[in-house]
Amino acid sequence: MRTVRPQTTPSGTQAALSGEFRGLTGLRIIAAAWVVLFHFHFTALPGMADVVGVLGPLLTAGALGVDLFFVLSGFVIAHTYLDQLGPALRAGITARFVWARLCRMWPAYALVFHLFGIWLVVRSVLGSDSAIAFQSVQPVLDAGQYVQQLFMVQLWDDRYFDGASWVGSTWSISAEWLAYLLFPVAALVFFRLRRLPAVVLAAAALALMAPQAVAYLTTGSPYYDWSWLVRILCGFGAGVFVYLAVRRIRWTARALDTASVLAAVLPVAIASGLLAGELVGPGRGGAVIALFPLLVGVLSIADRGPARILSTDWAVHGGRLSYCLYLVHIPMFEIYWLALHRFSWLAPQTVLAHIVGVLVLLATLPVAAWVYNSVEEPARRRMRRAAAVVGRLPVRAGIALGFLRARPAPLPDAGESTDGALATAASRFAAKRRALAIASGLDSAGEATTGAHAASPLRPPTLATALLTAQRRRPSHRAGIWANYERAEYIRGTYLRAGHAGRPLAGELHSSVGGRPCRLGPSPPISPWAPS
């Protein structure tokens, strides 16, 4: 089940989508668990060998979970940002997109990377051999590598991902970070292809998966020079094309039924393909990677079967934990693997070693939940808020220096409000503001038609500043709108009148607003600067 629905947009898009694809969020935990089990099957336990003998490629092909992540990322990023980034390459929107992705990826990554980096340094200093990690190619510990790891660019100049990352699995995070940085430019092309027929867009998605499918069919392995670059660009691009195809589909009852049936059939087809591929040759079943874009697409539309299961609260919450799960499982496995080699009481043949192994495997989920709740989400929110504050500083400085003008903030719509106090205060405020504008020579847009009047020899800048400060003070409650305005009137009548010796200020008049007489002075600015 999804929380999105088709709608017509001014641009003419047939199926504009809004909200979260809960089924795809739930699919993330399946992909992450597949990768975790794939890495755990390398554990040197006799019981693990028995499990591999039963499940075969369903377990040993778990590296495909990374490619499923790439397709999911392309779909979700296109759904969230394509309409913003696609029309034109603009610095502001691009910076906000990159910062949002950094806020999402970096905090949890930085924590795990630094903690595991300390573990590697300790092993390199106190270890009895040159191996500091359970990787086929040992990572390099130096200042240059630290900087690359810190900025998540460690993979960009390597032909293979083996040994490129201190935390072995984070090679894919470096690859995805590259895709995010390229997306604002690629969005210009994808956005202009959005009106192609859904069949053409779906075919493009399948075509992008062809290089990897062919590699599995011919060699049984996706590893070759720069294969990581092919995997991220093709997988991510396929996800974008699938999103474009989905938004072109008319979501009729028949379409929903077809998608629900395919959502149930495709997982069976993928599992069967993995098993059948082993009959042809080792690793040949990996060609089912070509079905991943189709799986993502039908799950985004389907409302029954697997889509309903993946949309349950537990699956969606697991999907939100999936990134942290992907980060923490390798460091936890590395500690366990080292213990298997170092301590005789935890020898691989013992029952205790198997029990501890299962506990370590299960413990990855609560540890991931802790990192998500204590690090990832709080840090993401703080970084987003900090960016909002920093982003407003140039605007506020421009207004203070006179280079920019504050935008009027709209008044509450009293007609649509069910709050009588708010409606009364808002209507009185609006009527009085219109009267002040007319009395002070302002047109309906708030532009001065008679000369500037904000400052004069009789109105010192310090007093004008006090008036503006009072007007900028936001009421703590909606009912305080009128009280806030009366406060500004008091300052105007008490302090600014001091230099006029009882003479009325220019432009003052007597009128009746809201059913009672009042004295109107020169108009204040229509509204103070309201940060967005």
Automatic annotation (TrEMBL):
Regions of compositional bias (Pro residues) in chain numbering: 522-532
Presence of keyword Acyltransferase: yes
Alphabetized UniProt keyword annotations: Acyltransferase, Membrane, Transferase, Transmembrane, Transmembrane helix
Entry-linked Pfam families: Acyl_transf_3
EC number(s) given by UniProt: 2.3.-.-
Domain of life where this protein originates: Bacteria
Keyword Cytoplasm: no
Region (Disordered): 511-532
Transmembrane segments: 21-42, 54-82, 103-122, 171-191, 198-216, 228-246, 258-277, 283-302, 323-339, 351-375
Acyltransferase domain residues: 23-371
GO MF annotations in UniProt: acyltransferase activity
The protein's name: Acyltransferase family protein
